[in-house]
Write a structure and sequence with these properties.
The structure holds 3 protein chains of 3 kinds.
Chain A: H1 3-14, E1 18-23, H2 28-33, E2 35-39, H3 45-54, E3 62-70, E4 75-84, E5 89-98, E6 103-105, H4 114-124, E7 128-130, E8 158-159, E9 162-163
Parallel strand pairs in A: 2-5, 6-7
Antiparallel strand pairs in A: 1-2, 3-4, 4-5, 8-9
Chain B: E1 35-39, E2 51-57, E3 60-67, H1 75-81, H2 84-92, H3 99-114, H4 120-149, H5 153-173, E4 182-183, E5 186-187, H6 195-218, H7 221-227, H8 235-240, H9 246-250, H10 257-260, H11 286-310, E6 332-340, E7 343-351, E8 359-363, H12 365-370, H13 373-377, H14 382-392, H15 396-400
Antiparallel strand pairs in B: 1-2, 2-3, 4-5, 6-7, 7-8
Helix pairs in contact in B: 2-3, 3-4, 4-5, 4-11, 4-14, 5-6, 6-11, 11-14
Chain C: H1 2-13, H2 17-53, H3 69-79, H4 90-107, H5 125-133, H6 135-146, H7 150-181, H8 186-192, H9 214-238, H10 250-253, H11 263-288, H12 303-325, H13 333-363
Helix pairs in contact in C: 1-2, 2-11, 2-12, 3-11, 4-5, 4-6, 4-11, 6-7, 7-9, 7-13, 9-11, 9-13, 11-12
Classes of the chains: A alpha/beta, B alpha+beta, C mainly alpha.
């Protein structure tokens, strides 16, 4: 299935929740199928993902990557790169949330692999994944202050009495 | 494809529930207390600084909670302050056992973002080195897996051969572990003239080592008994959990990005994609993952032989011909992935039309594979936990980034 | 040997209580000299053999070809800080290494090193040896519990389960020999096997034993070979050597019951392990391979050559243990128990039954 077809199908199923369509660069295999759709209604992301996984003609059984990003304009985004190993197509979704209330529903129940990616997203960017079973910091210590990959992040001067800067 | 694994989808409950397999629960057993054992961060077989919080009932593992971050450098933050070529040394330090593959993946991502075509000769050298590095990485994986099972000797045989590979790298680019060799659009140096001959000798010698390791380790009765039927990862679970590389193929799913999403010039070579078939025990057990690595090692040798045949020796192209003077991709984003020895190494690069990337997110295979550890190690014994961890083949530099 | 030693000491110091006491002390300490020299040799052998097996050179710096490396290692261990963990059970922790070493050293008391020398001629020799080697278990348990370390505790629990289990097949194999020999005295057992390789117990024992026909003895040979293999495997487990080294499995338990030990206490564990290896190898060679007897009957025999033959055979088995260690992976706890209870003990029972039947029907 080509990307446009996937997008159309998604648009037909979810209508207003799905935003615009963007082409992406990539490998030969990926340019045929790679590109992403903006999700306007990000509270529906879990349902949309569930649909993408369970719809027999789409069957996105694998979440390749879940990347969180600080766009620098007071918004954060989450990008879901997914792929169907059986039907061999590939798609991405992008969710943009305001920085002052970054809450996105978790997709852990759809793809178990999202678990650690989302924990990393919380740790590094500070996106709260709603209903995540175990949303703890993963790479940094539990008592670390701030989310380092935010553009406005200032590293603390001391951590437990140790100097952080060098 | 679809006949290879069960199509039914599973949702895995990630909550740390106390799970004891039904067959292991005995009625009226003596009530015992659970014991929490911290395996690591200083432990001989956590392959780096990983801490596993193991909840044990006697020798039985009830739950495992991995704690990462002991090697965290936040290289993704560094990248935001670096130019695109300056990121490459950081990428090296991610998966320090397969630095060539990481570089290759990163260079490819930036090239795709900018639409750069690299000369054929460069592609050959890249694939040659990527495959050599894959063998080097698998040598360490197989060797340390042997260590986890208690066999010390194969480990040193593996390191002996890895030494030859590192020597070739050293001759070509001067570095043995972290190369900064594959650049965006080219390479830092041309192939050293001796390397092709060294490579031919190496392939011959390495095939002997492959047989030797098989005899000494793989088909050893004790080794087989130790590794079969533990840490079973079912194919549908593997896909749902995002497993990749030998971990996914060990579960019987024929999926290799070199074939399924061909990059570089991999479509020119013939090679098999070995999958786990439950050769000694169950499909997706630790032995299968080990066996897939052994077979992949052999396949990489086959690819290297084909490269040596096809390599354009008279091609005097400058390997830096396609290296752009100024690397400044237009605004956009890309997710590009390659087959690392441990699985799918993905780079999500977001460019905002600057000389440094706005965001580099790495989908590191070891990170995702490690997240499966709790699921596949519940209900086995403490000694099995170490073997299951070994069979995942993690590199902490990549897990923690 | 004892008398000769006493005469020597009396000639030096004159007759008196002092001479008598000194004689006893020197007599008892002789095996210690053997152990220490042997330990130096065995440590070097382990380092060098493992290196050669692994395509390495091994230690090459201390002395020519690194032969002084064990001495350097011991000097290093002597200089190390002796650490007792704060929360350790100090009495148990400090006593354990000594108990472990005493357990293996007591075994040397009954070993007939040659026709002339056996520390003590007990008529229950082998029984005593099996009994005192049980003391090692107590020491290991004390070390594991006293260290207040979970890895140590795991190691100790595994070790105790393992040693206690494997004493049974070892005991059954020993029993086969004892039934043919009709004695538990190790010196007598050694003497019985005089007169060449065909008289060794692994080939069915002496062919001229009272009431025994040569044919009967030959009929015992295959059974005794099985008994020998059983004993050898069980002895590997009793000394915690690969593939049965799960109590100190490096990849799982760091160092098992001696994780927390440093300096000389660690060295004692180390020494005890090597001493234990020698004891079980010596017992294997006494019970099955003629002890101090030359394989060629009278040729190359005699008390002095006896010592050479005895140590040679024992060290040969130590070398095999080292060889196995660097070749095989390690078993898991349940597999270890499976092998012991479901494979080796039935075989051991069968051997005892067969030997018993043959001996009672045809001999007495």
């Amino acid at each position: 299935m080509t990307n446009q077809e996937i997008y159309d199908k998604l648009k037909a199923a979810y209508g207003g929740a799905i935003g615009s369509f963007h082409e992406q660069a990539g490998s030969a295999y990926m340019t045929r199928t790679s590109s992403y759709a903006d999700i306007v209604e990000y509270s529906q992301i879990a349902q949309i993902c569930q649909y993408l996984r369970d719809e027999p003609t789409l069957e996105f059984d694998n979440l390749n990557c879940l990347s969180c990003d600080d766009n620098g304009d007071k918004t954060l985004s989450v990008v879901y790169h997914m792929e169907s190993l059986s039907l061999k197509h590939y798609f991405a979704l992008k969710v943009t949330v305001p920085i002052d209330n970054p809450v996105v529903p978790t997709v852990t129940r759809v793809w178990a692999s999202a678990n650690w990616h989302e924990r990393e997203g919380w740790d590094m960017i500070g996106i709260k994944f709603n209903e995540h079973p175990d949303l703890r910091r993963i790479l940094l210590d539990d008592d670390w202050v701030g989310h380092p990959l935010r553009k406005d992040y200032k590293e603390p001067e001391f951590y437990r009495g140790m100097k952080v800067g060098y | 494809m679809s006949e290879l694994f069960n199509r039914t989808m599973t949702t895995i409950a990630p909550a740390p529930v106390k799970i004891i397999p039904a067959e292991k629960v005995e009625p009226n057993r003596i009530k015992t207390e659970e014991m929490i054992l911290n395996v690591g961060p200083q432990h001989p077989s956590t392959h780096g600084v990983l801490r596993l919080e193991a909840v044990l009932d006697g020798e039985l593992v009830i739950d495992v909670i991995p704690h990462l971050g002991y090697l965290h450098r936040c290289f993704e933050k560094h990248c935001e302050a670096m130019t695109y070529p300056q990121v490459i040394p950081y990428v090296d330090r991610m998966d320090y056992l397969a630095a060539m593959n990481s570089e290759h993946g990163y260079a490819l991502a930036v090239e795709r973002l900018m639409g750069i075509e690299v000369p054929e000769k460069v592609e050959y050298i890249r694939v040659l080195f990527a495959e050599l590095q894959r063998i080097a990485s698998h040598l360490v994986a197989v060797g340390t897996f042997g260590l986890d099972v208690g066999a010390f000797t194969p480990f040193l045989y593996c390191f002996r051969d890895r030494e030859d590979i590192l020597e070739m790298f050293e001759k070509t680019c001067g570095a043995r572990l972290l190369y900064n060799y594959i650049w965006v659009g080219g390479l830092s140096h041309d192939l050293h003239p001796d390397v092709l001959k060294m490579c031919r000798d190496f392939v011959k010698k390495n095939r002997a080592t492959h047989a030797e390791v098989n005899n000494l380790l793989t088909f050893n009765k004790i080794f087989v008994e130790r590794t079969i039927n533990i840490g079973i990862l079912k194919p549908d679970v593997a896909i749902n959990c995002g497993a990749s590389g030998p971990m996914l193929r060990g579960s019987g799913v024929k999926w290799d990005l070199r074939r399924d999403d061909p990059y570089s010039i991999y479509d020119r070579f013939e090679f098999d994609i070995p999958v786990g078939t439950g050769k000694m025990g169950t499909v997706g057990d630790c032995f299968d993952r080990h066996w897939v690595r052994m077979l992949e090692w052999e396949q990489s040798l086959n690819i290297i032989e084909q490269i040596l045949e096809q390599y354009p020796q008279d091609d005097k192209t400058d390997v830096q011909k396609a290296v752009p003077k100024r690397i400044k991709p237009a605004a956009g984003e890309i997710y590009s992935r390659t087959e690392n020895p441990r699985g799918e190494l993905g780079f999500y690069i977001s460019s905002k039309d600057g000389i440094n990337p706005a965001r580099v997110k790495v989908r590191s295979p070891a990170f995702v594979n490690l997240s499966i550890l709790p699921i596949i190690s519940r209900g086995y014994m403490m000694a099995d936990l170490i073997i299951i961890l070994g069979s995942i083949d993690i590199v902490l530099g990549e897990v923690d980034r | 040997m004892f008398d000769a030693l006493r005469d020597l000491i009396i000639s030096l110091l004159g007759k008196g209580d002092l001479s008598d006491v000194l004689t006893v002390v020197v007599y008892c300490a002789l095996p210690l000299v053997v152990i220490l020299l042997y330990a130096l040799f065995a440590i070097l052998a382990e380092m060098k053999l493992s290196a050669w097996l692994q395509d390495r050179l091994g230690p090459m710096r201390v002395g020519p070809w690194g032969i002084l490396q064990p001495i350097a290692d011991i000097l290093k261990l002597l200089q190390k800080e002796d650490i007792t963990p704060t929360h350790a059970d100090k009495k148990l922790y400090n006593l354990a290494p000594f108990l472990v070493f005493i357990g293996s050293y007591l075994g040397f008391a009954v070993l007939p090193f040659s026709a002339m020398y056996a520390g003590a001629r007990l008529n229950v020799g082998i029984f005593y040896l099996v009994a005192v080697s049980g003391l090692v278990v107590v020491g290991i348990l004390m070390a594991g519990w006293g260290s207040n370390n979970k890895y140590s505790l795991f190691g100790a629990m595994r070790s105790v389960a393992q040693i206690v289990s494997y004493e049974i097949p070892a005991g059954l194999a020993i029993l086969s020999v004892v039934m043919i020999a009709g004695t538990m005295d190790l010196q007598t057992i050694s003497k019985l096997q005089e007169g060449g390789v065909q008289n060794w117990f692994i080939f069915g024992g002496p062919k001229n034993l009272a009431g025994f026909g040569g044919a009967t003895a030959w009929a015992l040979a295959p059974v005794m070979m099985i008994a020998f293999i059983l004993y050898f495997i069980a002895s590997l487990a009793e000394t915690n050597r690969v593939p049965f080294d799960i109590p100190e499995a490096e990849s799982e338990l760091v160092a098992g019951y001696h994780t927390e030990y440093s300096a000389m206490k660690f060295a004692l564990f180390f020494l005890a392990e090597y001493a234990n290896m020698l004891v079980v190898s010596a017992v294997a060679s006494i019970l099955f391979l003629g002890g101090w007897n030359s394989p060629f009957g009278e040729f190359l025999g005699g008390p002095v050559m006896g010592l050479v033959w005895f140590l040679g055979k024992a060290i040969f088995f130590v070398m095999i243990q080292i060889w196995i260690r660097w070749t095989l992976p390690r078993l898991r706890v349940d597999q270890l128990m499976h092998i012991c209870w479901k494979v080796m003990i039935p075989f051991g029972m069968a051997t005892v039954l067969l030997v018993g039947t043959i001996v009672t029907w045809f001999a007495h």
